[in-house]
Design a protein that fits this description.
Blueprint: E1 5-11, E2 14-21, E3 24-31, E4 42-51, E5 56-60, E6 66-70, E7 83-90, E8 99-102, E9 112-115, H1 120-127, E10 132-135, H2 138-147, E11 153-155, H3 163-171, E12 176-178, E13 184-189, E14 194-199, H4 209-229, E15 234-239, H5 245-249, H6 252-259, E16 265-270, E17 276-280, H7 287-291, H8 297-314, E18 320-324, H9 326-334, H10 338-346, E19 349-353, E20 363-366
Parallel strand pairs: 1-10, 10-11, 14-15, 18-19
Antiparallel strand pairs: 1-2, 2-3, 4-5, 4-7, 4-9, 5-6, 7-8, 12-13, 13-14, 15-17, 16-17, 18-20
Helix pairs in contact: 4-6, 8-9, 8-10
Length: 367
């Protein structure tokens, strides 16, 4: 089996990382370096309050953020006001701070960040030592070469993502996933849980019981892949298409074998209504929280800048104009470094607000 390939695509305000195995997308990360999710960051923090009902304590971090330290990860026996060395083990969620764990070593104030954790390219390189890593950013290549064994990083003279991979990442931001044999998955995150509906659509017409079983088995495998790629977490409910509850139980052994490929995913069973109940441990920020669902003004603006960099490369020296809604332009202006990075990579950029510009129709063109 060929070694996996790690591709890193850098654009103003954003870094996207893909792990490919024999051409198949196996992992996808979208990071915004100006505000990293912080997994692996090492802090000096101060225990601010015990929380016995939650079996843990709250720890104040630099910048005013508060994280949660479970008793099982070092809070037990600690006292309020105590200084601690803690690492971020789970990204912040829905207004709640990150999850923390105590790391060995003495600690004393002030509050500060001691070290940053690895980003997606470095994590994947550590998990797959034989993988080749390719990036289209000189700065990213230099940083990765300083951290990884010699010869493992290639700087590309073209975009790291081809059209097929661009389409695959765009599809991860969409709520609907077409299924190869017909039908679709509909993915609907809520604050409490993620609901996934298997919609057989026209593929359901005239099918016998065996065909329905095969359709649902294939759809469940596709759902497991989407759960992993999108970093979905927490409670997840899957509604199968057109099967009595008794027959749905027959699909559990096969799906459990699929689910075991994801160490963070656990199959709980079927609810009384016949919904497949899953639970996935949260570590990284789900893609829909990074991008928005539908995509946020910032996500649409960063995507426009990414297209603009390619347009600038195709027409060196051209003065480009970005036409977008005022909300998109305001989001870009507020995001640290995004417009400055574009101007360094692509040259001058004029911003033209258009209140009638529909979402997703942001346009970068030469004047």
């Amino acid at each position: 089996m060929a070694a996996p390939l790690i591709l890193v695509s850098c654009s103003p305000g954003e870094q996207r990382t893909a792990l490919l195995r024999e051409g198949q997308l196996e992992a996808a990360f979208i990071e915004r370096p100006a505000r990293p999710e912080g997994i692996g960051h090492l802090h000096v923090g101060r225990l601010s309050a015990r929380a016995p009902a939650m079996a843990g304590a709250f720890v104040l971090l630099a910048g005013g953020e508060t994280g949660f330290l479970p008793d099982s990860d070092g809070a037990k026996g600690r006292t309020e006001g105590e200084w601690l060395r803690v690492a971020v083990t789970r990204a912040a969620q829905g207004g709640k701070g990150p999850r923390l764990a105590v790391r060995a070593g003495p600690a004393e104030g002030p509050l500060r960040l001691l070290a940053r954790g690895p980003d997606a390219p470095l994590r994947l390189a550590a998990q797959h030592p034989g993988a080749e890593l390719r990036t289209d950013s000189p700065a990213c290549a230099a940083r990765l070469r300083a951290a990884l064994p010699a010869g493992g990083v290639t700087l590309l003279s073209r975009p790291a993502f081809d059209d097929a991979l661009e389409d695959a990442f765009a599809a991860l931001a969409a709520p609907e996933v077409p299924l190869p044999g017909g039908g679709r998955l509909i993915i609907h995150p809520t604050p409490a849980l993620v609901a996934i509906d298997i919609d057989a659509g026209g593929a359901a017409g005239g099918r016998n019981a065996a065909s329905h079983r095969a359709l649902n088995a294939a759809a469940l495998a596709a759902a497991a892949r989407q759960i992993r790629l999108r970093h979905l977490a927490g409670a997840i409910l899957v509604d199968m298409a057109g099967m009595p509850i008794g027959r749905r139980k027959d699909l559990l052994p096969g799906f459990e074998a699929v689910a075991r490929q994801d160490p963070m995913l656990r199959v709980v069973g079927l609810t009384g209504l016949g919904l497949l109940e899953l639970q996935r441990r949260r570590v990284h920020t789900p893609l829909h929280e990074v991008l928005g669902l539908p995509p946020s003004p910032l996500s649409r603006g960063l995507a426009a800048l990414r297209r603009g960099v390619r347009a600038a490369a195709a027409r060196p020296g051209a003065r480009l104009t970005l036409t977008a809604s005022p909300g998109v332009l305001a989001a870009l202006e507020a995001w640290p470094g995004a417009l400055e990075e574009f101007r360094q990579a692509g040259g001058p950029l004029h911003l033209r607000p258009d209140p009638l510009c529909p979402p997703g129709q942001e346009d970068v063109h030469a004047e």
